[in-house]
Amino acid sequence: MITPVIQEATEAPQPIIPPPSPKRTGRSPLVIALIVVGVILLPLILLFAGLVALRAGVETTVSEVVTQGEQFDMNRDMDMEMQVEVVLESGPTVVLPENVYPGEDRGVQEGSVQHVATFTSADGVSDLYRYQAILLDSATQEVMDCLGMTQGSGATVSCRSLDETQPLVFWGDAVGPSGSWYSVAVAGLPLEATRLVTETETGRLVGSDIVNGVSYQEWPAAEGSTGGLLPNGGRQFGEAMRTVALDVQGTVVWTEFGGN
C-alpha cells in the first residue's frame, strides 16, 4: 500500500523592507546666519568678560583721585605734604641760577625771570623758577616758556613753545640723602587751580599747594629705605599713577596720567 506523502504548503519568503529614512529638513538662511554670528561673537564675549575680571582683580589701589570735572574730598589726609613758601619775585633783581639756564643755544629773555616758590620735603629744598628763553641761532628768535628747578647741586630744566596751551609737566627720579625719590613739577596750570594731588601705584596720596600755576612734589620710592626698595622688595609709595589739579572747592580742573 502506498502511503501518500502530504507536503505542507509553505509561504514564499517576504522581502525585508527597510524602515523609512528620517525626513531631512533644510536650514533656512536666517538660522545659518544666526549660527555664524554666534560663533563669531562668543570669543569676543569671553574675552571681554576676562578683561573685566582681570581689571577688577588688579586695580585695587587706584580709587581715591577722581576724574576731571568731579569732586575730590578736600578733607582727606595726605600721606605726604610738601611745605611751600611763596616767593613770587620777578624783574631784573632776580638772578637765575646758572644750573637752570636753558642751554648754550638759548638765552634768557631780560626781565622774564620769576622765582616762584620754595618747596620743602624730607629730602631737601627745591626752588622753582619760570622764565622765557630765546633761541639764539634762530632767524625768528623763537621764544620758549621754561620751568627750572634747583635742589642742592642738582637742577632740572624743561621748556616748551609759547603756543603750547597744555601745562608743562616733567617727571623725575633721583637718589637723595634718604633714598630713592620720585618727583613731578608742573607749570601753566589753570588759574583757578589751588591744589595738586598725586596718587601713586600703591594708593598713597601726595599733596602740594599751587603757586601762580606752578607746583612741585616729591615722594620716596619706598618709605624708610636707603635704596628705594624695602627688604622684601615691595614698594611703599611707588611710581605716580595720576596727578590732578583742584580748585578751591575740590573740583578737578586738570588731570595727568602716568609719569615716573
Task: Tell me what the structure shows.
By secondary structure, the chain is mostly beta strands. It has one domain (62-257). Helix content is 12%, strand content 38%. It contains 1 helix and 14 strands, in the order αββββββββββββββ. Strands 2, 3, 4, 5, 6 and 7 form a 6-stranded antiparallel sheet that branches. A hairpin with a 2-residue loop joins strand 4 and strand 5 (124-135). The longest helix has 30 residues, at 29-58. The chain is globular. The protein starts with 28 loop residues before the first helix and ends with a strand.
Number of beta-strand segments: 14
Please bin the fraction of helical residues. 10-25%
Radius of gyration: 37 Å
Uncertain runs are 1-12, 21-25, 48-63, 225-235
Taken in chain order, the helices and strands follow as HEEEEEEEEEEEEEE
Distance between the termini: 128 Å
The share of residues in extended strands comes to: 35-45%
How many helices in DSSP terms? Answer: 1
List the helices and strands and how they pair.
Elements lengths: L28 H30 L21 E2 L1 E8 L15 E3 L5 E8 L2 E12 L7 E9 L2 E8 L6 E9 L2 E9 L7 E6 L4 E5 L5 E6 L19 E7 L5 E6 L3
Parallel strand pairs: 1-11
Antiparallel strand pairs: 2-4, 3-5, 4-5, 5-6, 6-7, 8-9, 9-12, 10-11, 10-13, 13-14
